[in-house]
Design goal:
Largest sheet: 5 strands, parallel
Radius of gyration: 26 Å
Bound molecules: flavin-adenine dinucleotide
Distance between the termini: 68 Å
Length: 564
């Protein structure tokens, strides 16, 4: 019998489900309802229209309803909102938003891919015309038009997640004066606080007025006010403080809702009604590492769930191993990517973990465009199981993070990563890749052959006047150093052992961690038992301290910053 499948929502999850069903069943009747005017647009590219990287808003729309019909024989009804699911009748009630007519449409199988809507906080001034949220092509067109027509100069973006950061970057590139306000102490929560400082500095360097640890209190006509009482000039405001899964239809139909607020589904994306599937931002899924429900709100999982749901309708089994949360972003001259758990989320999940932060070159140093790659690896103690990674740099961070994502998906340990054979050519990487190096350092740490202190602990060490060795050469030390560090270069330390105490902790850094690592290991071999490498080294310390120093006016712990 000819199967009739209705799909609510015509973008990432909805359009992918429809296309997969068509590939599996040429006979099926497939109708996709979308309340907006477009189906199948690139949500992820929306911010790039603000800077002109995407030149016209038409380019954001990947397929029109006509093309869906012609190419795939899928009926995409835009401006049609599903307003009710009638489970007993196996039908939906649909409203044509152009003429307000309503009608019923029956289904054999129904798919909910209604996504998530931007949160609008209940604060004074939020309903004014110059306050925007970004979800679809219409939203970005409205913002773009408003900024030009009203000759806006200052824009406040509220929320430092992916959408807020990308919108702020693209507005800044377009020449607006941009402030970004974030309630938490850092932007980009997939990153740990230490790694986020690198992103904070990048925003400052490019002229974004970044304010963290402060929330939006009020929106006025030409300014916003924050909880701390700051007044920030803004003739336009973009709210990007998070999204809420669109579950109203599901809730009203009596489908189970999970503890995170997303629609509850089984391993094959079936809701509590076996004839109704749900995918994408509207559902909650299983986190493979924390073993808890989560809502990733990412396009990759939405598209994969869509395929799995369609497959299940046709008896094709899906191995559901849960999500780990992999994402990436470009921020001015940097790229940043992360996967799995960071130190904070591992802690929250009650997992016994440790981490290393290394910053080798992303390619052989002699090659053009070789840059440090800041790489943090999080692993379980005592198993060495890999839990997550974060990478920031000017080069190929996504490759490194994707390697780790693959390793996590295969339950790999540091031993596997240490020996992982990766491609190498000097223009593209190093013979021992960043990820191999991180595993080696982590294994030394795991097995007690090496100890490190985190970059976040250095300020306290300086304030306590701890014994800190700067293992760089004299000239480098002269150009800027930790205020109380003693300069004993790696090239001299064997002749100067008498200056290194054995009866108290000794902390060692160089520029990027390699020389200090060698000194730490040599001293260990010479019988020192209190030697610690300072993870991040001088470059990491400067990057970690800079934004906080500049924005709080606190005393520096370095004589001069050095970011080279
Ligand atoms: P959506 O793609 O949002 O589609 C849901 C659709 O359902 C909407 O168009 C909505 O109008 C429609 N709908 C809702 N209710 C009804 C109804 N009752 N009747 C009819 N239609 C309805 N993810 C990444 O992985 N990487 C990125 O770089 C990235 N960047 C992003 C940038 C922006 C600005 C935004 C907004 C999102 C970004 N995302 C990114 C997230 C990604 O787009 C989402 O995770 C993904 O689109 C979710 O797919 P979905 O099908 O669940 O929801």
């Amino acid at each position: 019998m000819r199967k009739k499948v209705l799909i609510i929502g015509g973008v990432a999850g909805g359009a992918s489900t429809a296309a997969r069903i068509r590939r599996l069943d040429e006979q099926a009747e497939i109708v996709m309802f979308e309340k907006g005017p477009h189906v199948s647009f690139s949500n992820c590219s929306l911010p790039y229209y603000l800077s002109g990287i995407v030149e016209t808003s038409d380019e954001l729309v990947l397929l029109s309803p006509e093309m869906f019909k012609k190419r795939y024989n899928i009926e995409a009804r835009v401006n049609h909102e599903v307003i009710k699911i009638n489970r007993n009748e196996k039908s939906v009630t649909v409203k044509n938003l152009l003429d307000d007519e309503t009608y019923e449409e029956e289904y054999d199988k129904l798919v909910i891919s209604t996504g998530a809507e931007p949160i609008r906080p209940n604060i004074e001034g939020v309903d004014q015309d110059h306050v925007f949220t970004i979800r679809n092509v219409g939203d970005i067109e409205n913002l773009h038009t408003y900024l030009r027509q009203q000759a806006v100069e200052h824009v406040a973006v509220v929320g430092g997640g992916f959408i807020g950061v990308e919108v702020a970057e693209n507005l800044q590139l377009a020449g607006y004066d941009v402030s970004l306000v974030e309630f938490a102490k850092q932007i980009m929560m997939p990153f740990d606080f230490d790694m986020a400082q690198i992103l904070h500095k990048e925003m400052l360097n490019h002229g974004v007025n970044l304010i963290v640890d402060d929330g939006l209190a009020k929106i006025r006509e030409d300014a916003i006010e924050t909880n701390s009482g700051r007044k920030i000039t803004a003739e336009a405001v973009v709210l990007a403080i998070g999204v809420r899964p669109e579950t109203t239809l599901a809730e009203e139909a009596g489908l189970d809702i999970g503890e995170t607020g997303g629609i509850r589904v089984d391993a094959n994306y079936r809701t509590s009604d076996p004839d109704i599937y749900a995918v994408g931002d509207a559902i909650e899924v299983y986190h493979r590492l924390t073993h808890k429900p989560t809502r990733p709100a990412l396009a990759g999982p939405a598209q994969k769930q869509a395929r799995a749901a369609a497959d299940h309708m046709y008896g094709i089994p899906n191995r559901n191993r849960g999500v780990i949360g992999s994402s990436s972003i470009k921020l001015f001259d940097l790229y940043a990517a992360s996967t799995g758990l960071n130190a904070r989320t591992a802690e929250q999940a009650g997992i016994n973990y440790d981490s290393v932060y290394v910053m080798p070159s992303d390619k052989v140093g002699l090659m053009p465009d070789s840059h440090p790659l800041h790489f943090k690896l999080v692993y379980e103690v005592p198993t060495g199981k890999i839990l997550g990674a974060q990478a920031i740099g000017k080069g190929n961070v996504d490759k490194r993070v994707d390697v780790i994502a693959a390793m996590i998906s295969m339950d790999a340990t540091l031993e596997d990563l240490k020996d992982l054979e990766l491609s190498y050519s000097p223009m593209l990487g190093t013979a021992k890749d960043v990820v191999n190096q991180a595993a080696l350092v982590a294994l030394n740490q795991l097995h007690g052959r090496y100890k490190e202190v985190k970059v976040s602990e250095v300020r306290a060490l300086v304030e306590q006047n701890a014994f800190i060795i700067d293992a760089r050469e004299k000239k480098e030390y002269g150009a800027g150093h930790l205020k109380n560090a003693v300069n004993i270069p790696l090239s001299e330390f064997r002749e100067r052992l008498d200056e290194i105490p054995k009866d108290k902790p000794v902390y060692i850094h160089c520029r990027s961690g390699q020389r200090s690592y060698n000194m730490v290991m040599a001293l260990e071999n010479l019988g020192y038992r209190n030697v610690y490498n300072i993870s991040g080294s001088y470059l990491g310390i400067c990057l970690y301290e800079y934004f906080q120093d500049v924005t709080t006016g606190r005393e520096k712990i370095v004589t001069e910053y050095n970011f080279n």
